[in-house]
Design goal:
With 197 residues, the chain is mostly beta strands. The chain contains no helices and nine strands. The chain has a single domain (31-182), classed as Jelly Rolls. It is extended, with a radius of gyration of 22 Å. The model has no long low-confidence stretch (mean pLDDT 80).
């Protein structure tokens, strides 16, 4: 009998507003362990700290590419290790975050470890949906204008979206491409509403 390959849950691109051609899906089976001292098996109480581990290999054509690891959300405090090197501690249960891991990657097998700590019983940890602040550094800010020959506003029953692609070229070679979409909608308030005019 032939061994059946495991089905990868959610195999589609996870961020439809920032689609790239080159990406690696890490969904699927991960090793799992509760914090030392708790087996996790037959554990009836809430586990405040769990560990995940996954091995992965980079595609051959990623040799000279920058590689980022994107998390949609991990509740609440996340620590990430790549090949034994501690990367970052992120706090915020409902906020996405990304890490550049290029400089820690190996050509052969790579090991990703994620520790998720979420002490829901602590009064020191925010609960519910949070809005957080994060400092981000950028080399250059660019502004652009999109010129449209025809405008189709998004509206219920006719939710029109425009496709969009950004390309970064350096010395004639594409360094990065990101595809996404956007919609246009007009919103206005007429007349006096409360104290606003």
């Amino acid at each position: 009998m032939k061994k059946q390959e495991p089905v990868i849950p959610r195999p589609g691109y996870p961020r439809p507003q920032m689609v790239r051609d080159n990406w690696l899906n890490l969904n699927g089976l991960w090793e799992f362990q509760a914090d030392p001292g708790l087996s996790g098996i037959n554990q009836k109480d809430f586990l405040s700290c769990v560990w995940y581990r996954r091995e992965f290999h980079l595609p051959e054509d990623w040799k000279d590419k920058r590689v980022f690891l994107h998390f949609g959300a991990v509740d609440y405090e996340t620590t990430v290790w790549i090949n034994g090197e501690k990367m970052e501690i992120h706090q915020g249960g409902y906020t996405p975050f990304s890490l550049e891991i290029t400089f820690l990657l190996r050509r052969e097998k790579n090991v990703l470890v994620v520790r998720a700590f979420d002490d829901v019983r602590s009064d020191l940890q925010p609960s519910g949906k949070e809005v957080g602040e994060r400092k981000v550094s950028a080399r250059r800010t660019m502004f652009f204008t999109v010129e449209l020959s025809e405008i189709y506003p998004w509206q219920p029953g006719r939710p029109f979206l425009y496709d969009l692609e950004f390309s970064l070229k350096e010395e004639g070679d594409y360094r990065d491409r990101v595809a996404g979409y956007f919609g246009l909608r007009k919103i206005e308030i007429q007349g006096n509403i409360g104290s606003y005019q």
